[in-house]
Amino acid sequence: MPESKAFIDTNILLYLLSADTDKANQAEMVLQAGDMISVQVLNEFTNVARRKLKMSWDETNEVLGLIRSICRTESLTVETHDKGRIVAERYQLSVYDAMIVASALLGNCTILYSEDMQHNLLIDDQLRISNPFINS
Question: Which end of the chain has fewer CB atoms within 10 angstroms, the N or the C?
């Protein structure tokens, strides 16, 4: 059986900065085991870090650098968009969640760590959504 590859959604990475130490620790473990993110994840993380968390550019860039040093980044392409539209319709996901799923599928991932999507949902017989905070 091929080795599992994991994709990490933005919401998991944001817990790295959380005052909730249990969730921050769990997010760190997921990051250490994770393989992939997408440009969309980087953009969403940057937006929340700057606007909601009021982080400076230096602080934001430091965290982004750490994430990028650990995870490969899947580019956003027209193929991502096309696959995402199909996934959104088939699984009734929001367009933005579907684009995350599409990036994970195109990256040949088998696990997508996300707190916001349906835990244990199997997409296209390839990708299982997993909420790492369940049972934590």
Answer: N
Q: What CATH code is carried by the domain that includes residue 11?
A: 3.40.50.1010
Q: What is the pLDDT of residue 34?
A: 73
Q: H/E/C letters for each residue in 85-118?
A: HHHHHHHCCCHHHHHHHHHHHHCCCCEEECCCCC
Quote the number of domains for the chain: 1
Q: Extract the residue ranges of the chain whose pLDDT is less than 50.
A: 1, 136
- Cα-flanking dihedrals φ and ψ of residue 90, to 5°? -65, -40
pLDDT number for residue 51:
97
Q: Cα–Cα distance between 78 and 56 in angstroms, integer?
A: 32
CA distances from residue 83 to 6, 79, 93, 119 in whole angstroms, order as listed:
18, 6, 12, 21
Residue 48 lies in a domain: yes
Nearest alpha carbon to residue 113 among 23, 21, 17, 47: 23
